[in-house]
Amino acid sequence: ELKVEQNPLFLSMQEGKNYTIYCNYSTTSDRLYWYRQDPGKSLESLFVLLSNGAVKQEGRLMASLDTKARLSTLHITAAVHDLSATYFCAVDDHYGGSQGNLIFGKGTKLSVKP
Amino acid sequence: EPEVTQTPSHQVTQMGQEVILRCVPISNHLYFYWYRQILGQKVEFLVSFYNNEISEKSEIFDDQFSVERPDGSNFTLKIRSTKLEDSAMYFCASRSWVTFPSEQYFGPGTRLTVT
Predict the structure, then answer these.
(1) Mutate which of B106, B110, B111, B112 to test chain A, going by most A C-beta atoms within 10 A?
(2) What is the mean pLDDT of each run of 10 residues along chain A (114 residues)?
(3) Which residue of B has its CA nearest to A102?
């Protein structure tokens, strides 16, 4: 059974600082997604990582995937208040024979303070 | 840009009542999903649907739940006899296919409150 672990679950940062959120998963997969969720809102797709070594960057966020280590990271550079949200990683369980349903981590609630 | 839509945005119902949550997936997508998120918790997979039948369902998706694609555009989730613990945000998602590359697009969600 695929399990997805995120850490930290809560992250309070000061503006301008850097930090990394980690996402570990338990079984083989080469499809990993990062989503952002604002309170009471839906899931906004940030990154789709589809192969080992994939790295994607958008603004102050950069995501990477290491399928051998079963690890993805979401790195935040020079945080700003607008990045305050909950960030979820989700792994596609297709190697488990599924039709692409996603298994989510518990989410990291990020709060960026001035 | 095409998007997944869901109605209603908020549904309040009494315990034991039936509810139907509606979704309109993106028009050329073939795979449809329902997820739920209890307040403050992670998003959990409920069911996937392809070619007019359920592909996979989780342990949460028991006999109280059913899904249907009654016409060419709508995708519904029915809860026959709601319980207090069914209170959650329910998200519909769709994707075009499972081969590379493929991404699930989520709707805005329906907040279900069972009293």
Answers:
(1) B106
(2) 93 94 89 92 91 90 94 96 96 73 94 92
(3) B45
Q: Give residue B99's pLDDT band: very low, low, confident or very high (50, 70, 90).
A: low
The answer to whether residue A94 neighbours chain B at the CB level (below 8 Å) is yes
Distance CA A5, CA A23 (A): 6
Asked whether the beta carbons of B87 and B107 are under 8 A apart, the reply is no
The token duo for B86 is: 């069914």
- pLDDT attached to residue B100: 54
A86's CB contacts (< 8 A; 6+ apart) are A36, A37, A38, A39, A107, A108, A109, A110
Instruction: Give the integer Cα–Cα distance in Å for A12 and B39.
Output: 21
Of the candidates A42, A90, A104, the beta carbon closest to that of B107 is on: A42
Q: What is the largest CA-CA distance in chain B?
A: 43
Token pair 């930290």 in the structure block, residue: A8
SS3 sequence of chain B: CCCCEEECCEEEECCCCCEEEEEECCCCCCEEEEEEECCCCCEEEEEEEECCEEEEECCCCCCCEEEECCCCCCEEEEECCCCHHHCEEEEEEEECCCCCCCCCEECCCEEEEEC
